[in-house]
Amino acid sequence: MRQTGDTVGKQASRINALYTPEQKRRRDESVWTLVQGILAPFQFVVFLASLYLVMRHLMVGTGYEIATYSIVFKTLILYTIMITGAIWEKVVFGKYLFVEAFFWEDVFSMLVLALHTAYLIALYFNLLVPYELMVLALAAYAAYVVNAVQFILKLRAARLQDSNQKSALSEKIDKPTASAVQNSPQPGTVNLAKSINPNLEAST
C-alpha cells in the first residue's frame, strides 16, 4: 500500500509541471483568467480580419486605409492582452513575466510585441512606404501565429495534466476499495462449506 501511495505521489508531482495546487486554485479563481479567455479568441478573430484586408491590399492595391486601421486595432488588442496577461501571471505565479511555466512563450511574445510596435513607429514617422509597412505587418502576424500555437499547446498540456491528476487521485482512492473487496471472505464459499459438512462449525 505504501508503494502504491508513493507511486501515485510521484505521478501527481509530474502532473503538476505547470501549476502547483495553490497556483491552480488561484488560476481557477482569478477574474484575469476569464479576461484572457475572452481576449485571446477575440484577438484571433481581429487577426483573421486584418490579415484578409492586408492580403487584399497587397494583391489588388486597394483598401490601404482600412487595412492600416485593422493593423493598428490588432496591435492595441495585443497590448491589452499582454498587459492583462502579465497581471494574470502575477496573480497566479507571483511574477509579472517570464515565469518558469510560460518562459519561452513570454520570450516569443516580446518578439511579437516588438514587431507590432515597429510597425506603429514606422507608420507614425513615415519610415516605410505602404508596401513595406504591409510586409512588416505580415512579419508581425507570422510571429503572432507562432506565439499563439505555443500558448495553445501549453494550455492543452495543462488540461491533460488536470485530467491525469484527477485520474491518478481517483485510482488512489479506488485501489484500497478493490483490495478490500478481494481480501474479504466470500459468503457463498462459507455457506457451501457448511452445506457439505454441517458439523464443520461445531468441530471448529
Describe the SSE topology.
Elements lengths: L1 H14 L5 H9 L1 H30 L3 H30 L9 H22 L5 H54 L3 H10 L3 H4 L1
Helix pairs in contact: 1-6, 2-4, 3-4, 3-6, 4-5, 5-6
Q: Please, what is the average pLDDT?
A: 83
Q: How much helicity do the residues have?
A: over 70%
SS content category: mainly alpha
Largest sheet: none
Order of helices and strands: HHHHHHHH
User: What's the structural domain tally?
Assistant: 1
Describe what this molecule looks like in 3D.
It is a single chain. The protein has helices at 2-15, 21-29, 31-60, 64-93, 103-124, 130-183, 187-196, 200-203. With 204 residues, the chain is mainly alpha-helical. It has one domain. The longest helix has 54 residues, at 130-183. It is elongated, with a radius of gyration of 29 Å. The chain starts with a helix and ends with a helix. Mean pLDDT is 83; it is low at 1-16, 192-196 and 200-204.
In brief, what are we looking at here?
The chain is mostly helical and 204 residues long. Helix content is 85%, strand content 0%. It has helices at 2-15, 21-29, 31-60, 64-93, 103-124, 130-183, 187-196, 200-203.
Any descriptors?
204 residues, 8 helices, disordered N terminus, disordered C terminus
